[in-house]
Amino acid sequence: YKVTVELNGDPVVMELDTGASVTVVKLGPLKKTVHLRAYTGEQIPVIETVDTRASYRGWEKVLPMLVVKGHGPSLLGCDWLQELGLGWREILKKGLGTLVGTTAKLYVDSGVKPKYFKPRPLPYALREKVETELQRLESEGTIELVSFSEWATPIVPVVKSDKSIRICGNYKITVNQASELDNYPIPKTEDLLAVLGGGQKLTKLDMSQAYQQMILDKESRKFTTINTHKGLYQYTCLPYGVSSAPGIFQHTMEGLLQGISHVEVRIDDILIIGKDDTEHLKSLEAVLQKLSTAGLRLRLDKCCFLAPEMVYLGYKINEKGVHPVADKQAPVPRDSTQLRACLIHFDATKKLILSCEASPYGVGAVLSHNMEDRSDRPIGYASCSLTQAERRCLEPLAFAGDTSHYSHYGRLMEQWLLMEHLEGTPVQAREIKTWNQQDPTLSKVHKYILCRSEEALCPFFVKKNELSVEDGCILWGSWVVIPPPARKRALAELHEGHPGSSCMKALPRGYLWWPKMDEDLKITVKNCHLCQLHQQAPVEAPLHPWEWPERP
């Protein structure tokens, strides 16, 4: 994204780059003052530092910039973005934002007795930092001092990577036991990594203290009271440690950013991808506009814009795939069982191969893509241990379990699984099928087996040893098998005189038969109107006259 900025009255086209900490141009005599390094680590020669008058859309200020040697575009860095009113000034301001239009609410069972815990003793080394953090939270309006509360939760100070303190309430022993859990689904890591295929550049937006930018409902604030050595404090916004906080915030963010393509949200992390810079910047601008309208703020030092690779959810991600980060890499493998390949992105246009393997103690699988160079690149791994009963059927269990585990990657998986399993066998199924069709004996056996499975032939299959043919008629012993066209006439002859179902069954014995003949006879009698009128009536009770009374 490029803008035209006037430098000392001369228009200069500069490329907006939030990844650049300073503003640089390609002009001037040699005078090295500072050291700069590019994203790839190579050093950029600095010629001089100059102060220039910059103006853009009504903004005009004297700002410092660095003159460097090179052939790339002029970069407008973060130091100028704030000064010239570029790059969403409000959303990049330091401090907490306030999400407008919605509040968080905790649903606590009114029948549960309130729980009050005394403050826990703090290590002396952390006491001063905790007090400083409490003062900061109170000055920002995140917490407020209260004199009384039925609910009180002890705090747990968490030391962050920059040695600062984050105060969390141990709500699992208080409100989390009495509140209803917000079960809104949080995206799985593998699902988020699967959508990264095809993205040339990545942008990650990180919100500053995300939960605390969401106002907490006034009725819910009493449940979040924390008990410290400085007294009772009540949260005015959504605190860390509440079991429903992730679901509430995930639901809110997905609703806020819905409709914007190439955007994935996982609680307070927003990931933007795009096939090219134009598509990427369009999605980025739409996301920033939504966040700015909602009153949210980002933490610029944790955001990453238009990067060819980044660390996300514990993985290093780039155009080629997913890789382990340096601090999580396994030791150098010493044998084949310890080898682990780097993962690639899932691509719905490429072929899938599921390789399964079973051992006496467990099953495992590798889901791979078949690449253009005919190599297989893994997408994911899966494994599990087996019980004593499961060890009796290792191979089928490996197929069933691994196919179920990766079923969300596509329905064509089963076809590739079967092909993978049969590959390399001495005799292929298609060869045996051809030979069966060519052999005169096996072709008849094949046809007979297929016919045997038909429902209409099952009654004849049971009597196969008693069937014979005489003058073209099929006989079951001495009984003639009546074909379907003659069965209606046979039923009419047997029903003449309306003898009833029992007599009708006895008449053809030794002469006629066809499958389900008794059922057809019962239906014939049941559907006959005269038979129903003259069916056997109940036995009449004997007449018994009234006895004459002996007296009135």
TrEMBL record:
GO terms for molecular function: RNA-DNA hybrid ribonuclease activity. InterPro entries: DNA/RNA_pol_sf, Integrase_H2C2, Peptidase_aspartic_dom_sf, Retrovirus_Pol_polyprotein, Rev_trsase/Diguanyl_cyclase, RT_dom, RT_RNaseH_2. Belongs to the beta type-B retroviral polymerase family. HERV class-II K(HML-2) pol subfamily. It comes from Latimeria chalumnae (Coelacanth). SUPFAM superfamilies: Acid proteases, DNA/RNA polymerases. It is an enzyme of class 3 (hydrolase). PANTHER family: PROTEIN CBG26694, RIBONUCLEASE H. It comes from the Eukaryota. Its EC number is 3.1.26.4. It holds the Pfam family RVT_1. Residues 139-317 form the Reverse transcriptase domain. This is Gypsy retrotransposon integrase-like protein 1. Gene3D superfamilies: 1.10.340.70, 3.30.70.270, Acid Proteases, HIV Type 1 Reverse Transcriptase, subunit A, domain 1.
